[in-house]
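User: Okay, second chain of the day. Same drill as before: sequence in, structure tokens out.
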Amino acid sequence: MRIDVRNTQRERLFTVDVDPDNPPAVVRPGGAGVETDKSEPVRDGKEVYLNWEQAVDDQGHLRRCPVCSCRELFARKDFPQVTGFLIVVGAAIVAMGMFGAGWVVEAFVVLGAVAVIDAAIFIFTKRCVVCYRCRSEFRDLPIRRDHPTWELSIGEKYRQVEESADGGQGADAAESDDSDDDTTRPAPMDSSR
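Assistant: Same drill. Structure tokens below.
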């Protein structure tokens, strides 16, 4: 399993490969997962302690982020969105130029070729799992077919948490997701009325 480790401010720290059958409790830059207890002194200041308890189910599917312990994860295609966007925009510009020059058939061939390339990328690109809270990415692991994809409401909840941590305006911090109870909590009463 390959992990793009990020901190709670969503800053990329490093990428590490770990053995899912024997996951390390500590990872360091350079890809070396090291079993150690937390009393060992930090050598380079970039050690990350992973919490694997309840992170992986019996089938090997990730259920919790081992970096930040968040239970809310989403699956997405592991392809840079900007690259796909630039391919489509480039093809549209080329096609417009060809339409303007009167090369209608050739322009449709270009658009058709880009559609085929886009479909091939969609079909053959693997998926990865991403944590909503820290945005750590997990690749090369089994992902359930019905694993949830991006949900705007959950993403917005963690965006508001990030803004309030940075001193942003107007957003209340979302409740920590470390508890096992899934009940909704009532909103705080406004005492100024």
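The longest helix spans residues 104-124.

User: Thanks, on to the next one.
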